[in-house]
Amino acid sequence: MVSDTLARLAGRLAAVFFAAAGLALPVGSMAAEPPAELLAALQRGGYALLVRHAQTEPGIGDPPGMRLDDCGTQRNLSAAGREQARAIGAAVRSRAIPVAAVRSSQWCRCLDTARLAFGGFAPVDAWPALNSFFDDRSAEAGRTRELRAALAAVPGTANVVWVTHQVNITALTGVVPAPGEIVVVRKAADGVTVAGRWTP
Fold first, then answer.
1. Distance CA 49, CA 152 (A)
2. Which end of the chain is more exposed for a tag (fewer CB within 10 A), N or C?
């Protein structure tokens, strides 16, 4: 019992360290099974699944001269990240979690994560509100406000998936997610409620 608790704590601390450092967390280093209460809630629906894009090539941010219309100018998913994205989709599908809509940042690493993980659930729509503001903090307030407003439209019998970046998720929730981690949220009277976290 104590050893299980220590193992879970070590996994969480590792996720925080890797996420804060901008590093990729090794695939399979955290438990794949979501808490039972969180899984039951997801199977009922009514939540937004905020997914940080999967593992990328080394680096932080994007190279100088990055363009949204040219993936070759961006930091993209690594081979491990592509595998991780597929595993995320398989984990959601195998647990019968309903997904009504999938939206993604316009960055290629997010679009690729969304298509590899959730392309079989619904069409992937690029949504500028999910775009990174890592290099433009002036955009933070407006994008976070738009995400909060959109939570009110989440259907009660299914979930929506929003694939985005660490800075966006942290601004909305206060959580610093690892690559590929899912932060489950819903609208609350005072803003946003974090229902749980899951790294498939």
1. 14
2. N
Pick the range with the lowest mean pLDDT from 4-8, 38-42, 158-162, 166-170: 4-8
pTM equals: 0.84
Q: Is the pLDDT of residue 153 over 70?
A: yes
The DSSP bridge partners found for residue 200 are none
| Predicted local confidence at residue 94, as pLDDT | 96
| Opening angle at CA 107, ends 75 and 114, nearest 5 | 105
When the candidates are 3.40.50.1240, 3.20.20.70, 3.40.640.10, 1.10.1660.10, the CATH number that belongs to 2-198 is 3.40.50.1240
Average pLDDT, the chain: 88
